Amino acid sequence: MKKLLTLLAVFLFGAIVSNAQGRKFAAHAIGFYNLENLFDTEHDEGKNDYQFLPDGSYKWTTHKYANKLKNMAKVLSEMGTDEVPYGCVAIGVSEVENARCLTDLCNEPALKKRGFKFVHIEGPDPRGVDCALLYNPTFFTVRNVKLVPYVYRLPEDKDRATRGFLTVSGTLAGEHVTIIVNHLPSRGATSFYREEGGYQLKALKDSLMREDPGVKILIMGDMNDDPQDKSMAKCLGAKRKVKDVESPDGLWNPWWDVLASGTGTLQYDGKWNLFDQIILSHSLLDVGSFKKNKVNRKKLSCPTLKYYKHQIFQRNYLFQTEGRYKGNTKRTHAGGTWLNGYSDHLPTVVYLMKEQ
User: Fold this and answer.
1) Residues with Cβ < 8 Å from 193, sequence gap 6 or more?
2) I need a labelling partner for 191 at 20 to 30 A (CA). Which of 36, 110, 143, 221 fits?
3) How far apart are CA 146 and CA 163, in angstroms?
4) pLDDT at residue 239 greater than cutoff 70
């Protein structure tokens, strides 16, 4: 009977954990993962997806596509399970070609058994890659969805287009939570275009808070910049220290210190970057519980959803174990060779708590 009640509590409230004082908390995990080119094997009219066709440069066959889906589902299903047995309640993803890919992904056994659904709006990116949100409807209910376009402001860019800001408003643990999933312009473009993205994200965040000052916002994505870069630190205004998030419309970037400690989510020339960030609104912070940017669980007060911890999700299978690139992320392709790997990025996860 006790086991049955525990399972019922997990279903209704999330993973229940207790501290030394006997206080009980419901835990919820939310993640982000760049899937690195999840393409199907068919051409989408008007999109430059030719590399990912059976006769394209990657020789992208149904066999490779099936393996990619299986590998992605494995990672997505395990994200968040270090703290919560059923994993993440919502995961933002980038570099997905279309709704068919997302349907196939959610039909993979590892995700299907949890009933995962997805939110996706086809965007204008020339290659066809979009952002999406996967979610577990047992815990997260979608209210409203919109794709806010990334706006090119210079006259010479009038014919350009890139990924927009997928904005998903929903209910988690009885509260209004909005998740913004984005993929800022690549490093093939100058910093100016990512700075523009930072300003546009801030404007979107401000508009959401004008509609509901109490909304809890998570801004996530492949920023193509590190936390200390201008697009994130100045244009978006995501602070390194919790104590500096003074105003109700402020943002905290927990990944700044992670990168400073020597680790990240992708490597370039043997050095770590941390492009894959999940940034939190002031409304998700119990400022009084923080000491040196870490939550003191004994002091954590969360009658509403509050941040508890964050992590770069790592498993041994996500890394190359031999050869010249030993220790690097194990990609789908490298050097023209199919590795049957995962992604050039590692996932990130944040955990939220609510006292029961």
Assistant:
1) 184, 185
2) 36
3) 13
4) yes
pLDDT (tens digit, 9 = 90+) per residue, 5-64?
Answer: 343 344 444 566 655 456 788 999 999 999 999 999 999 999 999 999 999 999 999 999
As a whole number of angstroms, the distance between CA 341 and CA 172 comes to 33
Tokens representing 59 are: 């020789």
Backbone angles phi, psi at 317, to 5 degrees: -70, -15
Contacts of 184 (CB under 8 A, 6+ apart): 163, 193, 194, 197, 198, 221, 222, 223, 224, 225, 231
What does DSSP say about strands 88-96 and 117-120: parallel, antiparallel, or unpaired?
A: unpaired
Longest distance between any two alpha carbons in the chain, whole Å? 68
Residue 203 makes CB contacts below 8 A (sequence gap 6+) with: none
Asked if residue 281 lies in contact with residue 254, where contact means CB atoms within 8 angstroms, the answer is no
pTM over 0.85: yes
